[in-house]
Design goal:
Elements (H helix, E strand, L loop, with lengths): L1 E6 L9 H13 L4 E6 L2 H13 L4 H20 L11 H6 L4 E3 L8 H12 L3 E6 L4 E2 L11 E2 L4 H7 L15 H10 L3 E5 L3 H9 L1
The structure holds uridine 5'-triphosphate (UTP).
Uridine 5'-triphosphate binds next to helix 2, helix 3 and helix 5.
Length: 207
């Protein structure tokens, strides 16, 4: 079984014990499942993008800064698997022997889109977005505690809730519009889970 996981940057916190548990858990699962992990940039990306934006850097340049942060996280995650190199392109990632860990690729989208592109390229069985909320809500649950969680949602409805365009570097919605377009085109079963909930993550991987 081939599974692509877009691991949100919020899950990759080097100082937290949660992070070690997640990495070790994924390592164990990678012995049974072909795992392709795409890491987000999290706070590091946002901090650096914010600082460089104040200096007047272009959006494309800010995206490049974000990509470097996602790759820093990918290098850290790759250490769980005893690796010291990460692929920079979808093509190289699709040819590599799993477990594969990578970060971003080119400006103009988030790592969720990279995950969707990789899932399309390798014909993955499922695509999992592991983030720091429990699923897709009708509003941001961090801002509105009464936001309603969807148990499932059609990709058409989700697309009607968000923009198809890439906005600004560092800006984030639960899934970016470019990823949604690829998910709709490929029909790949996609799951949004809280990556810190190991049971939920494992259940999602094994179905
Ligand atoms: P992320 O994928 O981490 O964005 O990439 P995010 O939406 O903030 O995701 P979370 O919060 O970590 O889950 C960070 C930034 O890096 C640039 C974008 O600017 C993005 O917002 N980026 C990343 C790219 O331009 N291309 C890529 O392939 C990946």
């Amino acid at each position: 079984m081939k599974v692509v996981i877009s691991l949100g940057g919020s899950i990759i916190s080097p100082n937290e014990t949660d992070f070690i548990k997640i990495g070790e858990h994924l390592k164990k699962i990678s012995k049974e499942v072909d795992l392709y992990i795409v890491t987000g940039g999290g706070k590091t990306a946002r901090k650096y993008i914010k600082a460089a934006r104040k200096l007047g850097a272009s959006e494309k340049f800010l995206d490049r800064i974000g990509i470097e942060a996602t790759r820093l996280n990918a290098l850290l995650m790759s250490a769980f698997f005893g690796q010291e190199n990460i692929p920079f392109t979808i093509e190289d990632a699709s040819k590599a022997k799993p477990p594969v860990v990578m970060g971003g690729t080119t400006p103009g989208h988030s790592t969720d889109a990279v995950g969707a592109m990789l899932a399309r390229e390798i014909n993955a069985d499922k695509f999992i977005i592991a983030t720091d909320v429990d699923g897709i809500y009708d509003e941001d649950p961090k801002k509105n505690p009464h936001a309603k969680k969807y148990d499932s949602i059609s990709i058409k409805k989700l697309r009607s809730m968000i923009s198809d365009e890439w906005g600004k570097a560092g800006e984030s919605f639960i899934i970016d519009g470019i990823a949604c377009r690829i998910i709709e085109e490929t029909g790949i079963p996609t799951y949004v889970v809280n990556g810190k909930n190991l049971e939920s993550l494992e259940n999602t991987i094994y179905g």
